[in-house]
Amino acid sequence: MEKKLQHKPEEYVDFVVTARKYKTLLTEKYKNRSVWHKPVAGEVISHLPGTIIQIMVEVGQPVEAGQLLLIHEAMKMQNRVVAPVAGVVAEINVHEGESITKNHLMVKINPR
Protein backbone atom coordinates (compact mmCIF):
# COMPACT_ATOMS: atom_id res chain seq x y z
CA MET A 1 0.00 0.00 0.00
CA GLU A 2 1.42 3.37 -1.02
CA LYS A 3 1.53 6.09 1.62
CA LYS A 4 0.63 9.58 0.41
CA LEU A 5 2.67 12.42 1.93
CA GLN A 6 0.76 15.37 3.33
CA HIS A 7 2.28 18.84 3.15
CA LYS A 8 1.09 22.11 4.62
CA PRO A 9 0.22 24.88 2.12
CA GLU A 10 2.90 27.18 3.59
CA GLU A 11 5.60 24.62 2.68
CA TYR A 12 5.07 25.29 -1.03
CA VAL A 13 6.83 28.06 -2.92
CA ASP A 14 5.76 29.73 -6.17
CA PHE A 15 7.95 30.06 -9.22
CA VAL A 16 7.21 31.30 -12.71
CA VAL A 17 8.44 29.72 -15.94
CA THR A 18 7.48 31.29 -19.27
CA ALA A 19 4.45 33.09 -17.81
CA ARG A 20 3.12 29.99 -16.01
CA LYS A 21 2.99 29.83 -12.24
CA TYR A 22 3.85 26.58 -10.44
CA LYS A 23 3.94 25.45 -6.82
CA THR A 24 6.65 23.12 -5.56
CA LEU A 25 8.37 21.90 -2.43
CA LEU A 26 12.01 22.77 -1.79
CA THR A 27 14.34 20.05 -0.55
CA GLU A 28 16.37 20.56 2.63
CA LYS A 29 19.56 20.30 0.55
CA TYR A 30 18.36 23.20 -1.61
CA LYS A 31 17.30 25.29 1.39
CA ASN A 32 20.69 24.78 3.10
CA ARG A 33 22.87 25.36 0.02
CA SER A 34 25.66 27.93 0.18
CA VAL A 35 24.85 31.20 -1.51
CA TRP A 36 26.62 31.98 -4.80
CA HIS A 37 28.79 35.10 -4.78
CA LYS A 38 29.89 36.94 -7.89
CA PRO A 39 33.64 36.43 -8.43
CA VAL A 40 35.85 39.44 -7.72
CA ALA A 41 37.87 40.63 -10.72
CA GLY A 42 41.53 39.86 -10.17
CA GLU A 43 41.03 37.11 -7.57
CA VAL A 44 42.29 33.72 -8.74
CA ILE A 45 40.76 30.90 -6.67
CA SER A 46 41.22 27.14 -6.86
CA HIS A 47 38.23 25.26 -8.21
CA LEU A 48 39.57 21.90 -6.98
CA PRO A 49 41.76 20.85 -4.07
CA GLY A 50 45.30 20.04 -5.15
CA THR A 51 48.99 20.91 -5.00
CA ILE A 52 50.87 23.92 -6.35
CA ILE A 53 53.58 22.64 -8.71
CA GLN A 54 55.18 25.83 -9.98
CA ILE A 55 54.67 29.60 -9.62
CA MET A 56 55.63 31.74 -12.62
CA VAL A 57 55.04 35.27 -11.25
CA GLU A 58 56.15 37.47 -8.35
CA VAL A 59 54.41 40.16 -6.30
CA GLY A 60 54.60 43.51 -8.10
CA GLN A 61 55.00 41.92 -11.53
CA PRO A 62 52.72 43.27 -14.29
CA VAL A 63 50.66 40.57 -16.04
CA GLU A 64 48.44 40.43 -19.11
CA ALA A 65 45.05 38.69 -19.26
CA GLY A 66 45.69 35.04 -20.15
CA GLN A 67 49.30 35.05 -18.91
CA LEU A 68 50.39 31.89 -17.08
CA LEU A 69 50.51 32.45 -13.30
CA LEU A 70 51.07 28.97 -11.89
CA ILE A 71 50.65 25.22 -12.36
CA HIS A 72 48.10 23.55 -10.06
CA GLU A 73 47.92 19.76 -9.90
CA ALA A 74 44.46 18.38 -9.17
CA MET A 75 43.21 14.82 -9.69
CA LYS A 76 46.60 13.81 -11.20
CA MET A 77 46.29 16.50 -13.88
CA GLN A 78 48.47 19.58 -14.12
CA ASN A 79 46.31 22.64 -14.76
CA ARG A 80 47.63 25.91 -16.14
CA VAL A 81 46.21 28.80 -14.12
CA VAL A 82 46.15 32.05 -16.09
CA ALA A 83 45.47 35.68 -15.20
CA PRO A 84 41.77 36.57 -15.60
CA VAL A 85 42.59 40.28 -16.08
CA ALA A 86 45.54 42.49 -16.95
CA GLY A 87 47.12 44.21 -13.96
CA VAL A 88 49.79 43.91 -11.29
CA VAL A 89 50.21 40.91 -8.97
CA ALA A 90 49.28 42.18 -5.49
CA GLU A 91 49.38 38.93 -3.47
CA ILE A 92 50.55 35.35 -3.89
CA ASN A 93 48.92 33.23 -1.18
CA VAL A 94 50.51 29.88 -2.11
CA HIS A 95 53.98 28.41 -2.40
CA GLU A 96 55.37 25.55 -4.47
CA GLY A 97 54.55 22.14 -3.01
CA GLU A 98 51.67 23.47 -0.89
CA SER A 99 48.43 21.48 -0.73
CA ILE A 100 45.40 23.73 -1.05
CA THR A 101 41.66 23.30 -0.64
CA LYS A 102 38.82 24.17 -3.00
CA ASN A 103 38.07 27.93 -3.16
CA HIS A 104 41.55 28.87 -1.85
CA LEU A 105 42.58 32.39 -2.93
CA MET A 106 45.83 31.66 -4.78
CA VAL A 107 46.70 34.99 -6.43
CA LYS A 108 45.25 38.49 -6.26
CA ILE A 109 45.76 40.90 -9.15
CA ASN A 110 45.05 44.63 -9.01
CA PRO A 111 43.36 45.23 -12.40
CA ARG A 112 44.55 48.08 -14.62
From TrEMBL:
What name goes with this protein?
Acetyl-CoA carboxylase biotin carboxyl carrier protein subunit
- Origin superkingdom: Bacteria
The residues covered by the Lipoyl-binding domain are: 35-110
What Pfam families does the record tag this protein with?
Biotin_lipoyl (PF00364)
Q: What is the lineage of its organism?
A: Bacteria, Pseudomonadati, Bacteroidota, Bacteroidia, Bacteroidales
Q: Does the keyword Nuclease apply?
A: no
Q: Which SUPFAM superfamilies does the UniProt record give? A: Single hybrid motif
**Matching InterPro entries:** Biotin_Carboxyl_Carrier/Decarb, Biotin_lipoyl, Single_hybrid_motif
Q: Tell me yes or no: is 4Fe-4S among this UniProt entry's keywords.
A: no
- What organism is recorded for this protein? Candidatus Parabacteroides intestinigallinarum
Q: Which UniProt keywords apply?
A: Biotin
Q: Which CDD domains match?
A: biotinyl_domain
